[in-house]
Amino acid sequence: MTEELISIVKSLSVISKLKIKIFDKANDLIFESNSKISTTNLKIRKSVLVSISKTAETSSKTNCYCIQIDNASFLISGLWNNEIFQGILSCGPFFTSIPVTNNLDTSLKLYYQSLPILNNLELNSLATLIVNITSGRPTKPNIIKTSTDFSFNVADNQSISSYNEDIINSRYSNQRSIMTAISTGNKELADSLIGDAAAFLSPFSQRTPNRPLRSAKNIAFVFNTMCRIASEHSGVAPIYLHLISEKYALIIERSSTLAQLAKSIHAMSDDYCDLVVKLNNNRYSAKIKKSISFINLRYSEPIKLNDIAIYSNTNPAYLSRKFKQETGQSVIGFLNRTKINKAQNLIKNTDNSITDVSILVGFNNLTYFCKVFKNITGTTPSSFQKNLGLFKQ
């Protein structure tokens, strides 16, 4: 094996995010890429390697074999130097459809969900690159699938009778229950109803033929919309919903494995529930809702009671009286509490100094910030930081 070949194979492994192995003519492993994907749970048996090696040696250089092991797939091609057979190269494991993991133990389920899912175009492109590397010349691959064919044909006309009505009714019922849980901020119930997020996505894996990951992403987008609607019904202002919806739209689109998508489903549900608990304004009148939204959006700016009253289209005296009546707090008290809550989050989750934190939440005077912080939390910012084990010099 030349250094040039090793360099190319390493690059392919990095780009494809797949484990690549090279075996010599005696079927002994002589190279293994440093892919993050482990092959501990799925290995090509020696007998399979021997069989494919013999077949590859006596067949066309352009052949690329797609084999399945426990429903996962590997691409295997003969490795040639000019006309001399050198061994074989394997690439995988990966899936060509969303795996069913309901009956697997937890560790194996997580492992399956971490594997990439390739559609037909990605499979053919990967085979083309492998054959061009292993044959030593530009060529088009001849993919030979040694087990079940991966193609999926969509029926032109599917009748209603072909669907299981009970299953569909159950899905819709579960969907309504999830939306109700999110609209009330019940994080535990929502997580319980979602259950295994991979299984949650699996029934829709062929809605985009031959592109299972794309199908799963589309369902995740739909779920994002469901969460947004449920949260809006609880009284969360659209500006907050827009921000969290945009955040998860990007996370979903950037996901490259089912595990990442499954993780985003639960994280999405949790974040929307937290948002509902924090910003549920349904119990307030329209003017107080506007005032609270203004404070939550502009807390870091030097806003005054008059600014909030103008935004809420009322006068300061009426707003002060009404705000205290509905929230139990004065407007300025609510504003300061919002600032201190934000400050606590910054101290917990960033490396900012206490001085920087005070400025970021809208205090221009550090002494006054520390005084307000202690009045609300019962401790100073420095003590709060020390108690978290995050004291910074």
UniProtKB/TrEMBL annotation:
GO MF annotation list: DNA-binding transcription factor activity; sequence-specific DNA binding
Superkingdom of origin organism: Bacteria
Keyword Cytoplasm: no
Keywords assigned: DNA-binding, Transcription, Transcription regulation
Annotated ranges, domain HTH araC/xylS-type: 289-387
PANTHER family listed in its UniProt record: ARAC-FAMILY TRANSCRIPTIONAL REGULATOR, HTH-TYPE TRANSCRIPTIONAL REGULATOR EXSA
Protein name: AraC family transcriptional regulator
Organism whose genome encodes this protein: Paucilactobacillus hokkaidonensis JCM 18461
